[in-house]
């Protein structure tokens, strides 16, 4: 298939505009600011929010579109990456074509437009994974370092774009759930989210293996703090799923009952820390640096058999396509937290998920 350059698919003026906007300064916001600003979703506040996004989103999208066209090792020419590039250029075009937002009617139209942009980008992660996977087959691991740094920037930026759009769209919800401000839950119970994520991960484990280890959760059930439940659910689901798989595979032929996975929630002054602890045999020390690199997975890659450019729908399996841990760490870092993995080979692994309790760190802007 002949590679279509962006200038062949899109007008020259649009490409020039992308480069102009890609040089502009991004503006980060904090969780606390999103929460305080969104707590009064008046028409005036929604208008201010839309006007901010009208200027901010094209800058962020332009930066990624430029980077998608200048990737090393021919990655920019992979069909899957070209498709992602086109999504970014189409979204930039739609945002730039939208006129100045002057009143509530404009704001409502703008909200519908960015909602459509968010849907367009739903499958960016598996599509990029497919492109990198196509490249990876003929590459050595040293080469992937540069790709890894790009993917970190790319996915971190994507988390931010989707958070800003989702937050603005959700502020329009006429019947928001109790204690929510857009995507943010002002009284989120980490114990409850951990329990829900654990149940989801166990059901996948049951489906794949026919059984699943027990999960014990320790902490104060009444403790709450402001956070984005969907982000925490995604991170917890990934960590618990990894632990379940490790334990299940280690004890599958054993006479011993598989030991439970332990989740401990600790509420500190600066951080809420959640530890996921398993006895799944651990990871060799030589393998630890690899676990946060993209496309490192000890399991069969579902992308290779079950995905095509038309759909980009990735099947849900116990072992993903090697993106779960690096992307979970980006979600943690987006609001000032982090994710650390400590392993004892021959015994098990402890994952420490740190979530910033203060909520006042600015978005990291790659």
UniProtKB/TrEMBL annotation:
- Main localization of the protein? mitochondrion
- Fetch the InterPro entries from UniProt: AK/P_DHK_N_sf, BCDHK/PDK_N, BCKD/PDK, HATPase_C_sf, HATPase_dom, His_kinase_dom, Sig_transdc_His_kin-like_C
Q: What's in the keyword line of the UniProt record?
A: ATP-binding, Kinase, Mitochondrion, Nucleotide-binding, Transferase
The Enzyme Commission number assigned here is 2.7.11.-
* One GO biological process term: regulation of glucose metabolic process
Give the organism, scientific name.
Answer: Capsella rubella
Q: Which residues cross the membrane?
A: none
Instruction: Tell me its family.
Output: Belongs to the PDK/BCKDK protein kinase family.
Q: Keyword Kinase on this protein?
A: yes
Q: Where is the Histidine kinase domain?
A: 229-359
Query: Which reaction is recorded as catalysed by this protein?
Result: L-seryl-[pyruvate dehydrogenase E1 alpha subunit] + ATP = O-phospho-L-seryl-[pyruvate dehydrogenase E1 alpha subunit] + ADP + H(+)
Localization in the cell:
Mitochondrion matrix
Task: Quote the protein name from its UniProt record.
Answer: Protein-serine/threonine kinase
- Is Kinase one of the keywords? yes
One GO term describing the cellular component: mitochondrial matrix
Q: Which residues form the signal peptide?
A: none
What stretch or stretches form a coiled coil here?
A: none
